[in-house]
Amino acid sequence: MTALTLSTSSAAALRADAVVVGVAKGAKGPVVAAGAEAVDKAFGGKLAAVLETLGATGAEGEVTKLPAASGLKAPVVLAVGLGEVPAKGDGYDAETLRRAAGAAARALSGSKKGAFALPIEDPAGVSAVAEGALLGAYTYDKGNGNGNGNGNGDNAKGKDKDKKNNGPLAEVALVGGKPRDKAYKAAAERATALVAEVNRARDLINTPSNLLNPAAFAAEAVAAAKEHGLKTEVLDEKALKKGGYGGILGVGQGSDAPPRLVRIAYTHPKAEKTLALVGKGITYDSGGISLKPAGHNETMKCDMSGAAAVFAAVVTAAKLGLRVNLTGWLALAENMPSGSATRPGDVLSMYGGKTVEVLNTDAEGRLVLADAITRAGEEKPDAIVDVATLTGAMVLALGNRTFGIMTNDEAFRTTLHEIAGEVGEQSWPMPLPDHLRKGIDSPVADLANMGERMGGGLVAGIFLKEFVADGITWGHLDIAGPAFNESGPFGYTPKGGTGAAVRTLVRLAERTADGDLG
């Protein structure tokens, strides 16, 4: 993973491949942001004018490279746009800094060191710039099926790199970072731990399905658990059958790669609250007998993004030593059509005894989640949050960059929405209308896995709510839009797996540890 250092050196004196400065969009042209004073001085106070001549405007995410002036140790200056100049007395918000740092880090791919002289006024600024730069530096190593996120399968594996993949920026040095200040140092350490796990999730999401089936995913979780002192339990197909996990078995029975349910748990001796996180882990989704149409299969390796997010969040909590108990449930299966696959019209007996008529085998995520949510509820956590690339309907409603939030508690829904905003993840609170419940009634089972077509994302949430035990606060994050970026990279978001919801889950765990569950 890209290294992160805090530096007290002047931006002009720091040796690096490039020095990164911020430029904002002013009323009369680009304005050099705080942190770049030494660089501007080297240009005789005319850096903004030079940038304007080169076409820079200061628009958010805009990147402009130019040769360094005499007096700078770095040979290149990289100016990254911050958007509008903030009002007098206000600083740049954290997400603006994250995105700018991410864009700069991407532009420096293949370089050894970048000196980031962006506006850092306090530890929060360190956190934002560090997160953005480290997230933006991510690359996926196509040669060996792993990226640079977790340090276990990255570009250090060998000298024969893919020549088209120059690898990530090797080091990010934050100018003005105060390495001896405890708060600054803590912010940098948290960012490093968090981003490593976001990138672990990205690696898993990007891994081809033939290399990551349910058993392989479970093995990844067990290996990480051993490394970080976590407890794991893996239920294979025999244990699932014995335990009556009809939803997970029903989804996975058409595949030669049998399903798994993984419990991975972090505990703190002084924790007062417990959170259960449940992740949809469909390692490949063909739709089953209800086969997806052409053009909808190619990216279905990403249908385990929810489980990847849950896995990464639990490991992050362990790394940070959060004063909370956090249990992750990874509901892993491969949804394939075959002679043994579940058919539309079949009835499954779920874990806990409820029966479900399967009207569409491509509505499989809610089936594996239902089993895991029921099982998680038996441990009586203070709250359950499930995360899933669940419905195309949610993408139609909110687009590709925003996830939906549904809960059985309005205050908790507000809390999740606020938390997502704090960490820079776009989300939107969604309702669970009572009138849609009737649509999932079934004449042959307790309920059906499909209801009204309109509002399908809400129907899925209503279905899941049926499996939440009484008295337990529950939230559902439908990350179908932002989990996998099929367009070009932007800000700190790469093409492919994004690690959506990891940062939200970690912040939820932090706030719970602080006694602020909501």
Task: Please outline what is shown here.
The protein has 518 residues and is an alpha/beta fold. The protein is 32% helix and 22% strand.
Structural commentary:
The protein is an alpha/beta fold. It has helices at 37-42, 47-53, 94-107, 123-136, 182-206, 214-228, 237-243, 246-252, 305-320, 365-377, 392-398, 410-423, 456-465, 502-513; strands at residues 3-7, 18-26, 29-32, 63-67, 76-84, 113-117, 140-141, 146-147, 171-175, 231-235, 260-266, 274-285, 325-335, 347-349, 355-357, 383-388, 403-407, 427-429, 447-448, 473-478, 484-485, 496-497. The strands form 5 sheets. The chain has an 8-stranded mixed β-sheet, with helices on both faces. Strands 1, 2, 3, 4, 5, 6 and 9 form a 7-stranded mixed β-sheet that branches. Strands 14-15-19 form a 3-stranded mixed β-sheet. Helix 9 links the parallel strand 12 (274-285) and strand 13 (325-335). The protein is elongated.
Fraction in beta strands: 15-25%
Low-confidence stretches: 147-164
Our measurement of the CA-to-CA distance between the termini, rounded to an integer number of angstroms, reads 34 Å
The tally of helices reads: 14
What is the helix content? Answer: 25-40%
Q: From the alpha-carbon coordinates, what is the Rg to the nearest angstrom?
A: 24 Å
- Output the structural class: alpha/beta
* Number of β-strand runs: 22
- How are the strands ordered across the major sheet? 10-11-13-12-16-20-17-18
What is the approximate shape? Answer: elongated
